[in-house]
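User: I'm writing a short report section on ligand binding and want a predicted complex to refer to. Could you take this sequence and N-hydroxy-L-asparagine and write out the structure as C-alpha cells? A short remark afterwards would be nice.
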Amino acid sequence: MFNRRKFVKLSAAGASLSVLSKQVLANALPSVPTATGFPIVISTWNFGIAANQEAWKTLSAGGRALDAVEAGVKIPEADITNHTVGRSGYPDRDGHVTLDACIMDENGNCGAVAAMEHIAHPISVARLVMEKTPHVMLVGEGATQFAVEQGFKKEKLLQADSEKAWKEWLKKAEYKPVINIENSKGLPGNQYNHDTIGMLALDAKGNISGACTTSGMAFKMHGRVGDSPIIGAGLYVDNEVGGATSTGVGEEVIRNVGSFLVVELMRQGLSPEAACKEAVQRIIKKKPETAKQIQVGFLAINKKGEYGAYAIQKGFSYAVCDKNKQDLLIDGKSFY
Ligand code: SD4
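Assistant: Sure. The C-alpha cells for the complex follow:
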C-alpha cells in the first residue's frame, strides 16, 4: 500500500496514476487528516453520539470492532423517537416498515438484509447472515423467516406517529415517491430522508469493522432498496486500508459504488476526507442538476485512525468517539 507522502512524491515526479484524475490530486494536497489513533469509532449524524458511546464500551475494554459496531448501531435501531433507523422507521408508500442493514468485519466477511419487515434489529440479523449462512444477503420474507428461525421476535413495527406522518404524506404526495422530499421540509439532512447510521470502528488491535442500518427513504416504493445494505455502496471495509460508509440518496451511491470507491481512493494514498470528496464529486459530475437537489455524504477512516467526511450539501454531521473525547460532533465539509 502506498502512503500519502509517497503518493504526493510520485505524483510530483510525474508518475502515471491513470485512475486518478487531476482533480483527485488537487484534493489530496490540501487535506489535513485528523488522527487520534485507536481505538476509535465514528458514525454518521448526531444520533451517532449515543451510538458511539455504546460502541465505546466494547472498544475501551479491548473488544472487537465488529462487536462494537453491532452494539453501537442497535441504539438508534431501538430508539422509538428515531424515524429513519430501525423499529420506528417511516414506512414505505404502502405503509410497510422495511429495514435494510449490512455489516462487514476485518476479514472481509459480510452480511446483509434488505427490505426486511417485522424485525427490530436488522443489523443483528445481517451479522447472523454473515456468520451462519453461506450467503451475503437475504431479502424480504426470506430475511424475516431467517430472523424468526434465529430467535428474533416478529412484531408490528409501524408506530402510531410514523403511521400519522405517512397518512399526511399520502394526502399531499398522491402516492408518488419523491426522492428529495427533504427539500420541501427545509434543509437537506432533515429527519425524513437522511438519517441512516453508518458506523466504522478501529479496535485496540488495529482491526476495522463497519455497520450500516436504515429504514431507507421515507415513503419509498414497496420493495425499494437503497445503498445502505449493499456492500461496496453503503459500507465497505478493507482491513489493509480503511473503511467507508454513506448516507443520503442511496440511488446515487449505488450508481457510483460509493463506499468501495472511497476505500480504493484511500488505498491510492488519499486522506479519508479527500477520498470522500472525490466520491462526492463523481456523483456531482455525472448528474450536476440532480446533485443540486439531493444530499449524499460519505464518512471514512483509515488504518491509522485518521478520519474525514464530505457531503454534497451542508448539514451533514458525524460523531467521533476516542480516548480523548466521547461525544464529539463534527460538521462535515460539503460541495455546496
Ligand atoms: C437509502 N441511504 O435508503 C439511505 C437513506 C438515508 O441517510 O437516509 N441515508 O437510500
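A remark for your report: The CA atoms of residues 195 and 296 lie 11 Å apart. Confidence is low (pLDDT under 50) at residues 1-32, 182-191.
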